[in-house]
Amino acid sequence: MDKPISTRKDVVSDIKAAKGIESDYIQLLNEYNKLQKVRETVFIVNVQRRFHPGFKIVNNLLTEIAYKTNCPITSIQAMHCDG
Question: Domain count of the chain?
Answer without folding.
Answer: 1
